[in-house]
Design goal:
single chain; alpha/beta; 4-stranded mixed β-sheet; two-stranded parallel sheet; 5 helices; 6 strands
């Protein structure tokens, strides 16, 4: 069984649970989330925590981390497209669908966006509805986080 390491860090959007494997960053959860099979180890997650602190302080616009993505081929294609959205910019779900070569799959893009296990680093918060509205992020609390992240990037 693969070793997983976790830690919880404070952030302006609340606690974040960071999970890394030997392959790289695997998950970021909003809140202090139990992660079965993961050992608490801040040393193993230190690079991720440092880069997130720099991001929240406005000193980092791109992350330089190895990512351990687990998802379908389609999900990974969407997540790779998300990483290419520039800091402080937004796109629509339809824009992402076109970028991954599936122009009619904007709902599937929304599903992949919701399934993103590495929010913030894989910036699903930069994807908006076609009318520019905040959508996704599973519920009102998460929409507040999406709005906070977009405001942080717009302020820089």
């Amino acid at each position: 069984m693969e070793k997983l390491f976790r830690t919880v860090m404070d952030s302006p959007v609340g606690p974040l649970t960071l999970v890394v494997s030997g392959q790289g960053l695997r998950e970021i959860h909003f809140g202090d989330v139990s992660t079965p099979g993961a050992t608490d180890n801040p040393r193993q997650t230190a690079a991720v925590a440092r880069q997130l602190r720099e991001y929240f302080a406005g000193r980092r616009q791109q992350f330089d981390l190895k990512l351990d993505w687990h998802g379908t081929d389609f999900q990974r294609s969407v997540w790779r497209a998300l990483v290419r959205i520039p800091y402080g910019k937004t796109v629509s779900y339809a824009d992402v669908a076109r970028k991954v070569g599936k122009p009619k799959a904007f709902r599937a893009v929304g599903g992949a966006n919701r399934a993103n296990p590495i929010p913030i680093v894989v910036p699903c918060h930069r994807v908006l509805g076609s009318d520019g509205s905040l959508t996704g992020y599973s519920g009102p609390t998460r929409l507040d986080i999406k709005a906070q992240l977009l405001a942080l990037e717009a302020a820089q």
